[in-house]
Amino acid sequence: MSFDLVAPPQLDANYANFLAFRHIQGLFSLLTSSNPTQALETRLLTYQHFAAFGIYNENDWGNSQLLELVNRSESLSCYANINTANGYFKAILKRDESDESGWFWALEWNKSYRIVGYISHPDVVPQMFKELPELDWCNVGKNVRKRLEMSLNPENDRLFRQEVVEKDM
Hints:
Blueprint: H1 13-32, E1 50-57, H2 64-73, E2 77-84, E3 89-95, E4 103-109, E5 113-119, E6 138-141, E7 144-146
């Protein structure tokens, strides 16, 4: 007996997380520094305060965890919402002004991958990332599992549709 498996190409999570860190680090510095062109006045995000929660390919943008994070983040104030290169690069940074527990961020690369995460104190996971719906994984062998990816109708895609607030950090 033989069978074939087909799956989309997988990003190396370590490389994707590091690239995301550099993108978010730059945007965070621009948003929070009094003068990001001067080293002494630049606020630099350290890797200890950065967390990548998940990486999702386009065919899985409708999964229950990602949709719940989008729903939970809609009440946050949006400080950066970037859509450039004809939609091939998107970034959003949000924060609850009344809660010092952290920032929500999301990136989209090449209309193909989304990565979401947060900026927080090293030992603190923001409440919005807790008690998310479980993804429906099925074990198919030793150390092998699968799940059905959930696509998202573009009309229902709300992740990068928030207006930026005009406030000083």
